[in-house]
Amino acid sequence: MLSSSSLRRSLTVLRNDIATAPIRIRPLLTHTTTIPSTSQCSPSRLRPFSSISCLQKHHNLPPRPKPPPDSEIEESFLKGSGPGGQKINKTNSAVQLKHVPTGIVVKCQATRSRSQNRTIARELLAARVDDLARGDESRSAVVGAFHRKRKASKAKKSRRKYRKLLAAEGEEGGEKRREGEDGLEENLSLTADSNAMRPIF
């Protein structure tokens, strides 16, 4: 159990470390629970609980784009297709949005609910308009570049690891391989001599 003084010390340490490491501190959650006693003679006990959650801060991304105003959007509802059963096939739950100024068309049939499809379609349309307007500075371009960079870094680390393993195997088995290569050359010369005496069909 943390006492209040040790909790204050840990919070001050965290506050001092914030300058050196990007950490986001969520509010302190504290509650006290009374556990009733099972016997008549012992009083019920108070058990305090407290927790602090710290998360590492992700890199700064541009804010999510806001959907364009409804005056710039033409909205239509279509019958869906594919998995989802009769509900998809017989109701107009798929949403198609057209951004009038740019001519971008987005169709969404992610769920069987029309209202959920409307919100998802508006988010998709906002992302497409943002891509068109901002280009390489749009949120999706920045996120894509981040994921490509992370994937390339993982691949580079993996290649480095396997090169290191192969180099370690080469140092350990170098003498054995040389001996094996000499023996292989001798065996090849024997088979070549024996093949010279056999007739070729």
UniProtKB/TrEMBL annotation:
Entry-linked Pfam families: RF-1
One Gene Ontology MF term: hydrolase activity
Keywords: Hydrolase, Mitochondrion, Transit peptide
Region called Disordered, residue ranges: 56-89, 148-201
Protein name (record): Putative peptidyl-trna hydrolase domain protein
UniProt xrefs under Gene3D superfamilies: 3.30.160.20
GO CC annotation, single: mitochondrion
Main location per the UniProt record: mitochondrion
Listed SUPFAM superfamilies: Release factor
Biased composition (Basic residues): 148-164
Similarity comment: family membership: Belongs to the prokaryotic/mitochondrial release factor family.
Signal peptide boundaries: none
GO biological process: mitochondrial translation
Localization per Swiss-Prot or TrEMBL: Mitochondrion
Residue span(s) of domain Prokaryotic-type class I peptide chain release factors: 70-164
